[in-house]
Design goal:
alpha/beta, Collagenase (Catalytic Domain), 3-stranded mixed beta sheet, disordered C terminus, binds zinc ion
Length: 308
């Protein structure tokens, strides 16, 4: 998607003044440490092309809306891709991540509940470990090139439009969305598509950030599952960011992050809630004891959504 409702009228970059031919739309979870009013909230972030600066666009009306793009169907495949030899020895970590992604995808209310958005349940392919070291600092476009080359060489499965990759980065690697926008400093994780609605689709999980990405515990694994669960849900419900289910400039978990509640699925992993349009509340877990105790999200009617 080159333009959405929010950016269709923007012809010049507000930062550098260059003409904007199109915007890249990415689904991004912001760090809480950098949050500022309207500037660094989780949602669909707009990167102007060709200059690459992020535009802080006005949100369209914050109603739950489907924009007609691809949605995740039953039987689509996830493949977890671990980039770096680090993961060949971090076997316990990889095993835990494999279990968490499978648990998230199978949870009877967290994942299955997305049926109300006409979104199905996926299955997991065998994970791939890429035994080359990523650069210590790389851009999303370099990551896209890497993913494209892995698909071409058979290092990862060829999922095309019927699935997605969770790409995990090792410790010490920073990914950037713009030269001044680095993982852990500005954002926690994100999802994107290499070639719009034609895919391939992917989430990116930097090694868990030490602050700003976990409001529930100090545990790196809990940090990972909170981000991963959000990106998996948002990828499934909005595969090509902005073309699927959105609430203004936000995806379904971003909206719930405003009233953040710590939640766990029935198997115990911490997850970020998504907005339930039938019940008009954010999803809450029924899993093992939650910490801190959850407070009920104030039900938002469609008209109230627009006033937040
Ligand atoms: Zn836009
Ligand atoms: Zn610019």
């Amino acid at each position: 998607m080159d333009r959405c409702e929010s950016c269709k009228g923007i012809s010049r970059c507000t930062e550098c003044g260059r003409g904007v031919t199109r915007f890249d739309h990415l689904g991004v979870r912001a760090t809480t440490s950098q949050a500022g009013p309207g500037l660094n909230v989780s949602g669909i972030w707009h990167y102007a092309r060709p200059c690459g600066h992020r535009a802080h666009v006005q949100a369209a009306a914050r109603n739950v809306k489907y924009n007609g793009g691809p949605l995740w169907q039953n039987g689509y495949s996830w493949q977890n891709v671990y980039w770096g030899t680090y993961f060949t020895t971090a076997t316990a970590w990889v095993r835990s991540v494999e279990k968490a992604t499978a648990d998230i995808e199978a949870d009877s209310t967290y994942s299955v509940g997305l049926a109300q958005y006409n979104v199905g349940i996926g299955r997991f392919a065998q994970p791939a470990i890429i035994k080359t070291a990523p650069p210590t600092r790389l851009s999303d476009s370099q990551l896209r090139q890497a993913l494209t080359s892995w698909i071409a060489s058979g290092a990862v499965q060829k999922l095309e439009t019927q699935g997605a990759y969770n790409i995990f980065l090792p410790p010490g690697v920073t990914i950037t969305l713009a030269p001044s926008e680095s993982s852990c400093a500005v954002f926690c994780d994100y999802h994107n598509a290499v070639n719009g609605s034609n895919g391939p689709f992917y989430t990116v999980e930097p090694y868990p950030c030490s602050k700003g990405c976990n409001q529930c515990t100090g545990d790196p694994f809990d940090t990972l599952t909170q981000g991963l669960s959000e990106e998996m849900v948002e990828l499934k419900t909005d595969m090509d960011p902005g073309t699927g289910w959105v609430i203004g400039n936000e995806e379904l978990c971003d909206f719930c992050d405003h009233h953040f509640v710590c939640n766990r699925i029935s198997t115990g992993e911490y997850v970020n809630a998504w907005y339930d349009q039938n019940k008009r509340v954010c999803w809450t877990g029924t899993g093992p004891a939650q910490n801190p105790a959850p407070t009920l999200f104030q039900p938002a009617t469609k008209s109230r959504v627009g006033q937040q």
